[in-house]
Amino acid sequence: MSWGTDLWDQFENLDKHTQWGIDFLERYAKFVKERLEIEQTYAKQLRSLVKKYCPKRSKDDEFTSCLSFYAILNELNDYAGQREVVAEDMGHKVYGELMRYSQDLKAERKHHLQEGRKAQQYLEQCWKQMDNSKKKFERECREAEKSQIIFERLDNDINATKSEVEKAKAQLYLRTHMADESKNEYAAQLQNFNAEQWKHFNAAIPQIFKNLQDMDERRTVKLGETYRSFAEVERKVIPIISKCLEGMVTAAKNDSSIVVESFKSGFEPPGDFPFEDFSQNIQRTGSDGTIGTPKTDGSKPDPKHSIGKAKNKLWLFGKKPKVRLAHVQLPPSIPPPPLPSFPHAHFQSPKFPTERIAHCLNEMRTVKSKIPSFRGLKRGAPNLEDLSHLPPEQRRKKLQQRIDELSRELQKEMDQRDALNKMKDVYEKNPQMGDPGSLQPKISETICNMEKLRSEIHKNETWLAEVEGAKQSSRSDRRPSTDVNHHAPHGRESPEGSYTDDHSQEHRSPPQPDPHEFDDEFDDDDPLPAIGHCKALYSFDGSNEGTLVMKEDEVLYVIEEDKGDGWTRVRKQSGEEGYVPTSYVEITLEKHSKGAVTYI
What GO biological process, any one, is recorded here (predicted)? Predict the structure, then answer.
């Protein structure tokens, strides 16, 4: 994983994370310093203790008890020397190395962040120039329109003198010429801004973030090396420390992946801004007074610097995309017996409004840190059922995890159902082993659990498909174009003066099924022959199209078996046909069809 591509919009969070990494390194260095001071004090006190209890030798000292005590004191003195060696090695190999490395990291981090801020400031400056030229172009077009109105009024006025008409015509020509110049300037500034923006998000920022990632990974590796050095120093005097060595250096290279998993939003970098032509309402008075469109090179456009649509894109540090609820109706293939039908699932689809770029550039410095430390990575906002409170990438991973877990539970229920059915077959063949009817409640409960799990899996798969579809759609619109598309401003104008898209393009609900999609299945002239009969275990309201209402203990004719979708086609005594859930009925097929087999 790369910070330059996955965390392109997390400048402030990477700033805070790298600062946290240096602070953590210095905190560990402070711990080592205090530890070696304790070792030095401990060794000093041990030597004082040995000196205090080691008097001059006498004849009484030749007794074995005295000799043993002297040996203990001698070993303790040597042990104090080893503690001094530990303190000295910690000071040189661990503490000193950490402090030198910390200073180098601070200087390198400062350099990379300065480069990032310079790149942001330069992009902001380019935008201001483009915005000023745009406002100037709009202002000149308005003045040209006013001059045109004055000229037309004087030209149609019989009382106006020729000099007044010529003066108005000259003024119109001047204003039109100035509008042409401001238009060309705006087009040039727009092309320059789009090119600089592309370089900013595809070259400058990725390289800076890659340097920060390399620095952070080197810091983590360095910490692992100092952990190992710390453990090696202890191993010389305390063998049991070697058991802790593996735990001290575990996962030294996993921090970069953790940062990406925490910060990755899943949004795409913003596209280019389109050219907005304000001169379409100006009538031309002559060949010299036309507002020309800047000519573009006939060569093949470079897709890296092209100007594409900026609609439905999220700006760098803009506001979080608003989400709307859309209704997704669960298919009738999963009715949970005998519980009532599940309500419609709700999922939220992200909507990417076009925010004002000035606000977005200001947001660069105001983004709050999402996780100040790794200990807080697991703390998040309150969970919603569809996980729409998470960014797209995080939501996709959580939904996939949930689907995998539900699939495992469904497999367990299916295995349990198969085992119960086998046991029931054994009981039917050998009644002395047990009553087959005693297994029916457990089988029904297992089938009910399976239908519930299938419903949950389908609901989460719908949300997952929505997230992946939105991601693919945003990627397909990302390629820019070098051609300046001259067109009038479209959409509606917001109170702040910025243009927004039509709501018809913002709200896209999933396609509704054709109400006549299954009509052909029920248009048979001749009724199908019955292949068996069934008994209703539960009542079914038949609210969906094509289903049949049935009551508990009602006997129906089976005219079409379950094809694996959970539905069986039946016919009432009155001749009414329709589908009912297979799990709601007990089916017995005739011998001439596929044998007298009972399905639950």
Answer: autophagy
pLDDT tens by residue, 44-96 = 998 899 888 876 766 555 556 666 677 777 777 877 888 888 888 888 888 98
Nearest-angstrom CA–CA distance, 134 and 137? 5
E-strand stretches of 404-506: 492-493, 499-500
**Residue 170: alpha-carbon gap to chain centroid:** 59
Q: What is the C-alpha to C-alpha distance for residues 505 and 352, in angstroms, rounded to an integer?
A: 11
Averaged pLDDT of the chain: 72
DSSP classification of residue 276: B
Q: Distance (Å, rounded) from C-alpha 231 to C-alpha 239? A: 10
For residue 532, give the nearest of 554, 560, 558, 552 by alpha carbon. 558
β-bridge mates for residue 346, sequence order: 327
Token match 């299938």: residue?
A: 454
Closest by Cα among 514, 557, 518 to 536:
557
Full set of structural domains in the chain with CATH? 3-252 (1.20.1270.60), 264-284+303-371+385-491 (no CATH), 519-599 (2.30.30.40)
Assign 3-class secondary structure to 545-561: CCECCECCCCEEEEEEC
Residue 583 token pair? 């799990």
Confidence (pLDDT) at 86: 87
**Per-residue model confidence as pLDDT tens digits over 468-520:** 887 776 666 555 444 444 443 343 333 333 333 443 333 333 344 444 444 44
H-helix or E-strand spanning residue 518: none
On the CB side of 518, how many CA atoms lie within 13 Å of its CA? 8
Helix, strand or coil, per DSSP, at residue 569 = strand
User: Cα 484–490–493 angle (5° rounding)?
Assistant: 125
CA angle 509, 514, 516 (to 5 degrees): 160
- For the purposes of burial, counting CB atoms within 10 Å of the CB of 415, is it exposed (0-12), middle (13-18) or buried (19 or more)? exposed
Q: Distance (Å, rounded) from C-alpha 13 to C-alpha 264?
A: 11
